[in-house]
């Protein structure tokens, strides 16, 4: 089974996954390769339901592998994905308060984050709040990452 990292954007899923395994799998990259365009573009052209269907298919495939998996922040929005994750261990929720995550995302000049760019801070906080219970529902381990360095987080996990 996969070691799955979940959490809101800016929580460090990709950073931690890379430190745990340099050959980690980024789910968004797999999806982008499969659909042949950016996720943002796919959302515009095909809509969220079509994206979530592909996301569930990719998640089901990846959970069968012995890998470290960094998921997209919205993976928990789909009932199907939560069912798939409920059958997997470990699902590691990298948790932080909204203000910490917002500062990290705002300072990130490398990653393209359409949800961040297209929403006000208040709307982002509502999205954040609406996902917390979903992350907790599927998490088998929760780590508060707000005050930990990536190295300290990895120490907790190994």
UniProtKB/TrEMBL annotation:
It catalyses: shikimate + ATP = 3-phosphoshikimate + ADP + H(+). Catalyzes the specific phosphorylation of the 3-hydroxyl group of shikimic acid using ATP as a cosubstrate. The gene is aroK. Substrate binds at residues 28, 52, 73, 131. GO terms for molecular function: shikimate kinase activity. Mg(2+) binds at residue 14. This is Shikimate kinase. Binds 1 Mg(2+) ion per subunit. Its EC number is 2.7.1.71. Keywords: Amino-acid biosynthesis, Aromatic amino acid biosynthesis, ATP-binding, Cytoplasm, Kinase, Magnesium, Metal-binding, Nucleotide-binding, Transferase. Pathway: Metabolic intermediate biosynthesis; chorismate biosynthesis; chorismate from D-erythrose 4-phosphate and phosphoenolpyruvate: step 5/7. Pfam families: SKI (PF01202). Its main location: cytoplasm. It is found in: Cytoplasm. Monomer. CDD domains: SK (cd00464). ATP binds at residues 10-15, 113. The keyword Cell membrane does not apply. Its cofactor is Mg(2+). Belongs to the shikimate kinase family. It comes from the Bacteria. The lineage of its organism: Bacteria, Bacillati, Bacillota, Bacilli, Lactobacillales.
